From TrEMBL:
<dbReference type="InterPro" id="IPR029063">
    <property type="entry name" value="SAM-dependent_MTases_sf"/>
</dbReference>
<dbReference type="InterPro" id="IPR041698">
    <property type="entry name" value="Methyltransf_25"/>
</dbReference>
<feature type="domain" description="Methyltransferase">
    <location>
        <begin position="57"/>
        <end position="151"/>
    </location>
</feature>
<protein>
    <recommendedName>
        <fullName>Methyltransferase domain-containing protein</fullName>
    </recommendedName>
</protein>
<dbReference type="Pfam" id="PF13649">
    <property type="entry name" value="Methyltransf_25"/>
</dbReference>
Amino acid sequence: MSNSNTSSEDPYMLGRNYYASARLAMLHLLIHAQFGFLLHPSIKLPSAIKNQEQLRIADVGTGTGIWIGELTRELPQAHIDGYDISDEQYPPQEWYGPNVSLSKLDIFKPLPKELEGKYDVVHLRFFMTIASDDNVQAVVNNLKGMLKPGGCLQWVERDWMSKFPEKAEKSDDPHTQITCYHRSLFPKVRWINSLPAQFEQCGLEVLDYVTQAPLPVYRKPWNEDCLIGWAAIGDLIKNQEDKKWYRERLAEAAENAKKGWYVDWELVVCVGRKDG
């Protein structure tokens, strides 16, 4: 596996250093703890499960590969391929065994022929900072193209932005002010609330659509994971006046979080099946 740096076309803004990787690890563990599954129960693996070496699974936007690492414990003989626009956060491939590959792929570009109709399951999560209302259909089409007939797509997201107004006032709490500031940085994400429609428009049968607020026992680590990501965004701000304002609001948000303040946002899981 190559050790090349992040692509110059990498749209991901939350960083790929060890802080970012640790944040993603906590994010994964929180999702798993919340839902209790890696693959949604509506996904019925084909008869190949009896002969797992025929089962092929893809993880798109794999990041650190932690989802794949956990899945190898449940399906040790399955072939699992991880794809990301950057390989900078990948662990040594041999840690995951001979049935796992980790390589680079830009899912926003036309799908390579060799990936068409290859997988029983395709998994993707947390594209809210890089997918937009304008390009999400192209992503879903590419993911569908990776599926075998009868294969399933599982998409996991965080519906955060819809909980906040389009514009903040100076009197608003710091979470609202920062989130509204992020609207100038992030793509438009109305698509998160319409994932089932996005699936159906691409010809996928929606098997399930689940929304859940974080359980109270996980609110604190979710808050902290969020604040770590926000700190990484703040480091990217070039305007020094904006950066100072942002850091002040972030410090206030952290203090509020310590006192029990939290955002009642939702985790979203959408599962679809390709005809066949």
